[in-house]
Amino acid sequence: MIFQKYVSYYQERELKKYNEDQKSQLRKIPAFIINKKDQEEEKESGDPLNAALRELGKYIAVQLHLLDTYRLDQTDLLFQVFEYDNAIYFKKQTLAYLLKTLPFKIETKYFSNSKKSKKQSQEVKIGFIYDTIKNSYLLEAIQDELRRTKGNSKILSNTSIVTDVEFVRFIADAARHDLVLTQHLRPAIWTKSDKSERAAIYAANSITILIAAHYSFTCQDLSSINIRGANIQNGIFSGVDFSGADLSYTNLINLQADHAMLVKTNLRAAKFGVFSDLQHPSPVRCVRFSPDGKYIASGSMDKTVKI
After folding, report:
1. Is 282 part of a structural domain of the chain?
2. How far is CA 1 from the centre of its chain?
3. Residues 30 and 114 in one domain
4. Is the pLDDT of residue 297 over 70?
């Protein structure tokens, strides 16, 4: 993926600025960042520092997602693990050296503890320079988690991504080329036995991603599923059984659902509608109905009329 190549280039460029003593310090990354499986993989592929930095990027991306924020501050566990000291300039600390090797934006603010005291404290916040870089790390973290747990994602079941259009598109694009990812997302939709809120969030996220990836649910049994708040706009659900399903607050605009069964389906506050076929490349100046009400004609500034 192009974003992973960019990160690798950025990382290699920054590491060239470090001497061997600094690199040896970076290799002493605590176990909470890199797990045993990654350590074994890196023994075969090269420097364990590369795996550790990749895990660091994924950790920060996941934390930003779970906390629904753009920046992490010094209250995060990451700062504690690397023995962050509020009294020492951040640029001189180990964590600062480590973060510089990845495409992060680091914001540091210094201030005095009091008017009488000469002691200074600092506030540090870290995030990614681009959302696409964060999304790349987050996608990789989700893929790793799904493979490790065989389809049980705490990341996708903790927070809704339905309104995060860019990330949905990002992960949907990956799903079109990653059959394993698709196979893990599909079972998450069938939550008949699990009535928890987390299961509903996971199901809504999963079906939103699959629809964005142009997956067809034609003639499938989706009875009693709970995808409350999902976005399945433009989805293909011909002949689907939605009996007893919870589709409340779901975006059903332009849905292809001919011959679908909606017996006792919860459609509270669901969004309905279809996109007009009378679309012009130029602004429409007039619209008229036929006397019998069967036809509609539109005239555009491009001098065309559509019926």
Report:
1. yes
2. 16
3. yes
4. yes
Q: How far apart are the first and last CA of the chain?
A: 45
Q: State whether 158 and 62 are in the same domain.
A: no
For residue 14, give its domain range: 2-132
- Domains in the chain: how many in total? 3
Distance CA 260, CA 96 (A): 56
Domain end call among 132, 161, 189: 132
Handedness of CA 2, 51, 127, 165 (dihedral sign): positive
Asked whether residue 166 is domain-assigned, the answer is yes
pLDDT, tens digit, for every residue of 238-292?
Answer: 999 999 999 999 999 999 999 999 999 999 999 987 666 667 778 888 888 788 7
Q: What is the rounded CA–CA span in Å between residue 109 and residue 124?
A: 7
Q: At what angle do helices 179-189 and 165-177 cross, to 10 degrees?
A: 120
Q: Does 8 share its domain with 111? A: yes
pTM above 0.85, yes or no: no
CB 44 within 8 A of CB 54: no
For 149-171, write each residue's pLDDT tens digit.
Answer: 888 899 999 999 999 999 999 99
If one counts every other C-beta atom within 10 angstroms of the C-beta of residue 30, the result is 13
